[in-house]
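Reviewer 2 asked us to include a model.

Predict the structure of this chain.
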Amino acid sequence: MKVGILRPKIQVLDEEHKNKIYIEAKEILENLGIFLENENAKELFHNEGISHEGLRYFIPSDLVEKCLKTVPSEIKLYDREGKEHITLGEDNVHFDPGSAAILYFDETSGEIRNAIKEDFIRFSKVVEHLQYIEAQSTALIYQDVPKEAQDWHRLFIALTNCYKPVVTGTFRKESFTIMKDLLLSCRRSEDDLARKPLAIFDACPSPPLKWSDLTTQSLIDAAVSMIPSEFVSMPLAGASAPMSLIGSITQHCAECLAGVVIGQLTKTGAPLIWGGSPAILDMKQGTTPMGAIETMMINLGDVEMGKFLKMPTHAYMSLSDSKVPDTQAGFEAGMGALLAGLAGVNMVSGPGMLDFESTQSIEKLVIDNELIGMVKRLLQGIEDYGSPFAANILKDYEDKEELLSHPSTLKLFRKELFLAGPVIDRQSRDMWKASGAKSTRKRAKEEAFKLLSKGSLRPIDDRVAKELEDVALKHL
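Predicted model (C-alpha cells):
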C-alpha cells in the first residue's frame, strides 16, 4: 500500500515510558517470576539454569534481552496454495475475524444460539469474498462434532472453504499434531510449511503471570515447526491486573516477554507475534467490555510496546459488546478498527464479533469489511501529485463550469475515493426509498446471501481437498 505525504498515526506512550515499562516488566520476571506448569518448558528453563521456587520461575533480564534479539521482526503469511499473501511487520495493518466464539447470531432468524458446523462453513465462504478481511480464523466453536475433534475440525473446515491464511489455536494438547497434518496437506513438506506459513497459533497466558501447560505446549510445538505463535495476553484491569492502564500494559509486557523466552529457548528464530486481548472490568456490570475506550487504550499501549521491541503485533479490536449488529456494534467496531489502523496493528482480530468475544455474526462481518475499507483508505494518506495542486485545474473550470469531466477527475477519482457499498448507504433519499428503504443490517444480510450464492474465488485443488479429508476421516 502506497503511503501519502504523511501516514496518519496515533500514540499513547512516549519513548521514556516505553522504556520504563520494558525495564519494569523485566524486573517482574526476574523478581516475581512466572507460574509455569509445562514439563517441557521446565526442562528448557533448567537447562538455562533459571532458578525457581516450586512452579514459580524467575527469568533473568539478560536472558530476556538475549531472546528478544533472535525474534524475527517480520512474518510473511502465505495462502492455501502457497502464494505470498500478507506481511506482518512495521505498520502494515491486516484484519481477521476473532477466534473461538461459542455462539452464533443467526442472520435469518435473529436468534443467538449455539453454533453448528454449517454456520462455520457459511462463515468461511463469506470471509473468502471480503476484500478487506485478509485472513480467516477458526471463528466458531460448534457443538455437532465430538468434543475431542473441535480444535482440528475447525481448521479442516477453514482450509477447505477459504484460501486465506488462518488464525487458529488449540484447546487440547493432542490437537496440535493433527492440525499440523492438515496444514501439511497444503504444503509439500515440513520445510515448505516453515518457509511458507499458512496458520498462526494463538497462545494465551493466564493473568497474572501464568503460562499454563496447554498454552506453553502449543507455543513449544509451534516453535519446533517454525509455525508462528501469537501471544494473546489477557490482563483484566482491576481484577487480574492493576487498575491503572499503564499497570495492565506493564503486566502484559511481562507475560509476553516470558513467551518470547519460552519460544526462543525452544528454537532460535521461532516466529512470534506480540498480541493480546486485554480488557477493563466494568465496575457497574461486572463484565469485561471489549468495546470500552479504556480497553482500546490498553491495546494501543500493548501494541506500542511490541513495536518498541521490534516484533510483529496483534490486538483484539473492531469488535463490540452489543448482542446484535446495532448502532452500538457499529460505533464500537468502527472506533476499534480506526484506532487499530492508526496504531499500525499488524493483525487485528475482531470483525464480526459481538458480546464480549462470545458471538460471531455474518451481518456484522460484512458491515465491518466496509468499515475496514474506509480505515485502509485513511491510512493511504493524502498524496502529492505535483504542484501546483489546484491552480491549473481551477483555470480550466471556466470552460465548462464543472470539473466532473476534467482529465484529472477521470484519472484520479478511483484512486482518491473509497467507493463505498453495497452496505454503506450514500444514495439520495428518493433512490433509497425506491430500492426498498433498507437498513444497514438488511443490506448486510442481503450482501451475505449474495456472496454465499457465488462460487469460490479460489476453488480448492482436488488433491489438497482429498488429503484434508483423509486426515479428518482418520481422526473422526
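Residues 68-380 form a domain with the TIM Barrel fold (CATH 3.20.20.480). The chain has a mean pLDDT of 97. We have added this to the supplementary material.
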